[in-house]
Write a structure and sequence with these properties.
about 325 residues, 11 helices, 2 strands, two-stranded antiparallel ribbon, mainly alpha, 2 domains, elongated, single chain
Length: about 325
């Protein structure tokens, strides 16, 4: 995610970091070069004059802009829903830490836990599992595998049992439920209070499942393909429709139109998948780090990881 103050004036035109210009620069340059050639040849191709008027481009341009806007709105809905789900995960993890430490009775005094310890206290163990749950979900959504990051948060036996599991988030929640059931049977928590914690666990599972739904269900490919092809055909044919009307200004006008349409198309592709590693995707690393800091601090720890800061305006 790009994190920066809004530049003003001329600087707004010169900003590259966070712009889609890097993704579309090749096709944009080719389009402008074509428009330049068409301008010098006055729309002739192999000595054959290609005659086009502005009417078909007027008829196609407005619907194309509307449908590109609609697609980008649908893509942004996915992006914003994903951000709300990770906000929900942050909220539920904080609630889970508070509920475990205040509602579960444990006869042994609680000592501040450190990552890599035996985590003997069930309350501490559940809080660490919540941290591991968020890290595992982030890795699953991004298709990465950083085992050391999760291994330090779990007991050795639990970590070994987790390795063959395909659905590691489900397995972690199953272990949470098992510990909660044990606390209920041993009288460390009453049934109404256990129900409150179980509702929090269910909310975590629901948020994770919704993230997986967004990841596995992109916008229909045929719809994206149709808009992509139409935008490209429109922009590459546009010089032939403008050269007889505006003459030497054709490359300049074509460049502006092409930047808009190619940019909208590329922007839709980028925000449609909010869990990726591109500069405009969600900063899942920073969110997971914030969750880990909050939960470990709630356990009384002082040796905490540092919050992630933007690097070149990009927050991971």
């Amino acid at each position: 995610m790009i994190v920066r103050d809004r530049p003003s004036g001329l600087r707004m035109f010169l900003v590259v970091r966070g712009s889609v210009l890097q993704q579309i620069r090749t096709v944009l340059i080719v389009n402008i070069l074509l428009a330049t050639v068409v301008t010098f040849t006055h729309g002739a191709l192999f000595s054959q004059k290609i005659t086009l008027t502005a009417i078909p481009f007027t008829l196609i341009g407005l619907p194309l802009a509307i449908f590109l806007g609609f697609r980008n709105t649908a893509a942004y809905d996915r992006y914003w829903e994903a951000r709300k789900l990770w906000g929900e995960l942050l909220l539920r993890c904080r609630n889970l830490s508070r509920q475990c430490q205040s509602l579960i009775d444990f006869p042994v005094p609680v000592q501040p836990a450190q990552a890599g310890s035996d985590l003997a206290d069930v309350r501490v163990r559940m809080v660490y599992r919540a941290i591991a749950f968020c890290h595992v979900l982030r890795q699953q959504l991004r298709g990465v595998d950083d085992r050391g990051e999760v291994q330090a948060l779990l007991q050795p036996a639990e970590w070994q049992a987790l390795q063959p599991k395909m659905g590691k988030t489900t397995a972690l929640m199953q272990h949470m439920g098992t510990d909660l059931q044990h606390c209920l049977r041993t009288g460390r928590i009453g049934e109404p209070l256990a129900g409150n914690i179980d509702n929090t666990l269910s909310a975590l599972v629901s948020a994770a499942a919704s993230c997986e739904r967004i990841k596995s269900s992109p916008l229909p490919f045929s719809y994206t393909l149709l808009l992509h092809r139409t935008a490209y055909m429109y922009c590459f044919l546009l010089p032939f429709g403008l050269v007889d009307t505006i003459g030497f200004m054709t490359p300049f006008v074509v460049g502006i139109v092409a930047y808009t349409f190619f940019g909208l198309d590329a922007l839709g592709d980028e925000i449609e998948e909010p869990f990726g590693l591109l500069p405009n995707d969600l900063p899942l690393d920073a969110i997971c780090r914030a969750i880990e800091i909050d939960l470990r601090e709630s356990l009384g720890e002082t040796n905490l990881p540092k919050p992630l800061e933007p690097v070149d305006y990009c927050l991971l």
